[in-house]
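Friendly challenge for the regulars: who can give me the structure tokens for this chain first? No prize, just bragging rights.
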Amino acid sequence: MPSINLLPWREAERKQRQRDFGVAMGGAVVAGIAVVVLTVLAYSQMISGQEARNDRLEAEIAELEKSITEIDGLERQKERLLARMEIIEQLQKSRPEIVHLFDELVRQLPEGVYLTSMKQTGSRVEIRGVAQSSTRVSALMRQIDSSEWLTDPEVERVETTQAGTSRQSQFVVYAKQVRSDADLEDDV
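First reply, four minutes later:
Bragging rights claimed.
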């Protein structure tokens, strides 16, 4: 029989397979590297996009914090203005009270009693004066007690002194000023 030598053909086919395998391996390595590079690029792009969003959020937060600071400043200014308005309103409401007080003192002052000074602290009124006698001071106390605008009279002192040929009594009386119902209704 004739002898056929198949070894070189097998050898050529083996070399071809090895080359194909090497090319496939090289292609797989290149494809793997490409996948890794593309993945890294995709992740880095996503990270940079997220960083850009974070930077924008931080800028917006800083702007909102400025606005909050301005609003807090405006709130404090509003509270100060409201407090001033309340004080002015109280002063406006108490304006007629002093007129009522002086009018009432003139009406309740008995004959023979002269006032030398008057001082008001809150609702307490200190009245200093001179009377012809201590009974006139008692009459002043009764008049104050029956008054609409004054109440709770208290005597601190009554001193009788000699002034020339006549005697006179120097006195210090305290009373409380009362607000009228009309003033109280204005407050409501």
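DSSP finds three helices and four strands in the chain. The longest helix spans residues 7-108. Your move, everyone else.
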